[in-house]
Specification:
Helix content: 25-40%
Largest sheet: 11 strands, antiparallel
InterPro entries: GalP_uridyl_Trfase_II, GalP_Utransf_C, GalP_Utransf_N
EC number: 2.7.7.12
GO molecular function, one term: UDP-glucose:hexose-1-phosphate uridylyltransferase activity
Strand order of the largest sheet: 3-4-5-7-6-13-14-10-9-8-16
Protein name: Galactose-1-phosphate uridylyltransferase
Strand content: 15-25%
Radius of gyration: 26 Å
Structural class: alpha+beta
Number of strands: 16
Family: Belongs to the galactose-1-phosphate uridylyltransferase type 2 family.
Distance between the termini: 76 Å
Shape: globular
Length: about 525
């Protein structure tokens, strides 16, 4: 590609940066020089492009791809996903405002206009900077379908690119570094990345004070829902659910009342993928669990102003609602402390087991906080991570018969009613819909690698729906059936099942906390 043309692409990228408030008019020269240095360009630059003479794209990827192709042709990078991602992030870093400028702008906007405007601008920055790769997020398949518990949300995750074997091998050979210590650490801001760690030159965070400690707000680069944010502690300290957790959650929704916030559980198997750095997830989205109806109301004599309910949901959820934050925090602590110690052997719930002569804890909670009509609402989802010979993957974890759809941990997002399913399902479900619409036979289906795990389910689908559906009907059937499967996944993860035995067990625990049925 001619240098002259690349210079024009650079000018267009600079206009993109200006229009999206990444850089100002007088930053253009410095940004141009940085990009030219990155691409080893010595020839004179092109004439500056004016915004009014150029149709500025919504996202920068098409421009970046031209620069990446140029870099690959010059052997500045190997032409693979990893090295292209490292370089285009470095290029976008040349357009970025400094960390202090982003933080100051956020807090100024919040104070002068309002917090919603501040998060709107910050979210736009995260997208415009290509930190959130919109072109990849758009690949995800998303749908909603009815279940016994209301609408369930499904995402098939296609936004994470597949690396080729050569890239994977090179990443293994690269010397490992413990800087930054994890993907959440503050030191990721401006980090150049490596074959094993994504570049973050286009990453900026917002400082927050929660319980008089330093926390930081950022958006997830994978945005599984609207304005999917992460709030992480300044220090690389492990996750722990305790009284401070509830106070931090309520501090956050006091400052950002238009967002919910929740925490993954703090134990393996029932927690998220990162337990070694204290963090929460939140955002601007109404999940199915939030809309779940109360099935029964309760009360506690010490906290008469806290509304307590058990909601209609596949997992075991205690919902607290109050106007006074101290009341809701203190009752939540009482429930948590009791649950940590509580056992009900009849229902396979054991708070502790002995492993190698040491006591191992099994009970914890997944908490979610939100503001509703000015009141505090706190959902406490009871969790237990024990395993058994019958259920070696986890007693309260997706059971074997559902692993063809979901076998990974049930974290915060899934708990609230959104399934994050592996990308492999896209092609597998398409083939199954082809079978249900008579386009291929069962023998063809059996020959496909990876389809054997679905064959029992396929047989059930045939029995229920036949194999003479239209393609559109077959796809709709599968969407609804997947939602049903995910409901079963959540039922497996629930410590108290939605039957008479489970209800009695749930009430036994509530009674142990001093919670009794409300007199309406």
């Amino acid at each position: 590609m001619e240098v002259e043309k690349i210079n024009q692409v650079i000018e267009k990228l600079l206009v993109y940066g200006e229009v999206n408030n990444l850089l100002g008019k007088w930053d253009r020269i410095a940004a141009r020089n940085q990009i030219r240095d990155i691409l080893k360009i010595n020839e004179s630059p092109a004439e500056a492009v004016k915004a009014e003479d150029y149709e500025v794209p919504e996202a920068p990827q098409a421009l970046l791809d031209q620069l990446l192709d140029f870099a690959a042709a010059k052997n500045l990078i190997n032409n693979n996903i990893t090295e292209r991602d490292l370089l285009d992030t470095r290029i976008m870093g040349a357009l970025m405002p400094r960390q202090s400028e982003v933080a100051a702008r956020f807090h100024k906007t919040a104070e002068e206009i309002g917090i919603k405007k501040a998060t709107d601008e910050y979210y736009n920055l995260a997208q415009a900077s290509n930190y959130i790769r919109q072109n990849r997020v758009a690949r995800d398949l998303n749908w909603k379908a009815e279940s016994d518990y209301g609408q369930i949300e499904i995402t098939i995750n296609l936004s994470k690119p597949e690396k080729d074997p050569e890239e994977i091998a090179k990443a293994r050979e690269e010397e490992q570094s413990n800087y930054p210590k994890c993907y959440l650490c503050l030191e990721n801001v401006g980090f150049s990345g490596s074959l094993n760690h994504p570049a973050r030159q286009n990453h900026r965070v917002i400082p927050l004070k929660l319980q008089n400690e330093d926390w930081f707000l950022q958006y997830s680069p994978y945005v599984y829902y609207n304005e999917h944010c992460i709030v992480f502690h300044k220090k690389h300290i492990p996750m722990q659910i305790d009284k401070n957790t509830f106070a931090v959650l309520l501090d956050f929704i006091d400052q950002l009342p238009h967002y919910f916030i929740g925490s993954n559980a703090d134990l393996p198997l029932v927690g998220g993928s990162i337990l070694n750095h204290d963090h929460y997830q939140g955002g601007r989205h109404i999940f199915p669990m939030e809309e779940a109806e109360a099935e029964e109301f309760y009360q506690h004599p010490t906290f008469p102003d806290v509304e307590i309910s058990r909601i209609k949901w596949p997992m075991s959820v205690i919902r607290l609602k109050a106007d006074v934050r101290e009341d809701i925090i203190n009752l939540a602590v009482k429930i948590l402390d009791n649950w940590r110690q509580y056992s009900d052997p009849e229902l396979d719930i054991l708070a502790f087991s002995q492993v190698g002569g040491r006591q191992k804890a099994h009970n914890t909670i997944t908490p979610i906080a939100r503001k509703k009509d000015g009141s505090y609402e706190l959902d406490l989802v009871l969790r237990n991570n024990r395993k058994s010979e019958v259920y070696p993957d986890g007693i309260f974890h997706p059971h074997q018969k559902l692993h063809h759809i979901k076998k990974e941990n049930i974290g915060l997002i899934e708990v609230m009613g959104r399934a994050i399913l592996p990308g492999r399902l896209k092609n597998e479900l398409n083939l199954i819909s082809n079978y249900l619409s008579g386009q291929i036979g069962i023998d063809e289906l059996k020959e496909v690698d990876g389809l054997e795990k679905h064959l029992q389910w396929v047989s059930e689908l045939k029995r229920k729906h036949g194999i003479n559906l239209t393609k559109e009907e077959a796809e709709k059937v599968i969407e609804v059936e997947i939602a049903g499967k995910f409901s079963q996944v959540l039922e497996d993860a629930g410590v108290y099942k939605n039957n008479s035995i489970g209800y009695k067990g749930f009430k036994r625990f509530l009674a142990a906390v001093g919670i009794e049925k409300a007199e309406l």
